[in-house]
């Protein structure tokens, strides 16, 4: 078994096998349920280790997991860089290693960059399906990078929004994204213009200070706060954090990694377990 060399699955192959992020929904819903069930769910997923690469403004994240239900043993390795010399280079790059859980031999090395784009958007879509207002019409996306595109794709596939608004710090990037997707997108000159009246908001920036302010957000709106994944990064201001009902997949990770949670000082309530999503 251990003499079989691992297969390599490139980004093009991942794209071919996974043309739409929505294909991930059943597997991710089951994985979220298993993870939320604690020991009974059979998921071993410690808090990831994140190694700063200080001279270069980067980070290396190591994300191991074992799922008994899938008998899958895997690790994602992801690098992400705040400041890139070549601005066209992707800020995030990932590789997924898949092991044979029976003996620990390496079976596959997969490009994880496409997987990260699609998995993250699919999990936001699951949260949105469960938490958005019933009559949601307006989608707002703040940011215009890789995650903005993947969120646009799955959200417009799954939900009947009548208007999609997009804002980016660099308007040119928003215009480029808007013109490259199939449907109608309103590019807004300010984040406020994009947010006011929106029913579902997605924050997918690398901002380190708030870009989304509670005074703009419609009561009952659902926010997918994706970007601020370092303890000193923010996307949402204190007003919004303190006036919202927070739903997290991992309390441990939210309290250790989410700048929005840590720096706003909000406390997470008692865990709520659901038998299905
Ligand atoms: N929660 C999760 O599971 C995941 C979170 N992320 C996070 O989502 C965010 C977006 O990731 P990608 O789309 O891959 O990155 P990207 O580099 O492709 O796009 C980043 C976007 O943020 C904008 N931006 C950068 N600095 C900003 C600032 N100070 N203020 C406002 N906008 C700013 C850029 O102009 C660009 O539109 C990142 O923070 C990333 O770490 C990414 C993957 C998974
Ligand atoms: O889960 C992930 O891939 C990442 N989270 C923050 C940066 C990359």
Automatic annotation (TrEMBL):
Note the InterPro entries from the entry.
Answer: NAD(P)-bd_dom_sf (IPR036291), ODC_Mu_crystall (IPR003462), ODC_N (IPR023401)
Reactions performed catalytically: L-pipecolate + NAD(+) = Delta(1)-piperideine-2-carboxylate + NADH + H(+); (R)-lanthionine ketimine + NADPH + 2 H(+) = (3R,5R)-1,4-thiomorpholine-3,5-dicarboxylate + NADP(+); L-proline + NADP(+) = 1-pyrroline-2-carboxylate + NADPH + H(+); L-proline + NAD(+) = 1-pyrroline-2-carboxylate + NADH + H(+)
Give the UniProt record's GO annotations in the biological process aspect: thyroid hormone metabolic process
Q: Example GO molecular function term? A: thiomorpholine-carboxylate dehydrogenase activity
Entry superkingdom:
Eukaryota
Q: What is its EC number?
A: 1.5.1.1, 1.5.1.25
Q: Name one GO cellular component term.
A: cytoplasm
What SUPFAM superfamilies would the database entry show? NAD(P)-binding Rossmann-fold domains
Q: Which protein family is it in?
A: Belongs to the ornithine cyclodeaminase/mu-crystallin family.
Q: What does the record note on quaternary structure?
A: Homodimer. Binds the thyroid hormone triiodothyronine (T3); T3 binding inhibits enzymatic activity.
What is this protein identified as? Ketimine reductase mu-crystallin
Originating organism: Bambusicola thoracicus (Chinese bamboo-partridge)
High-level lineage: Eukaryota, Metazoa, Chordata, Craniata, Vertebrata
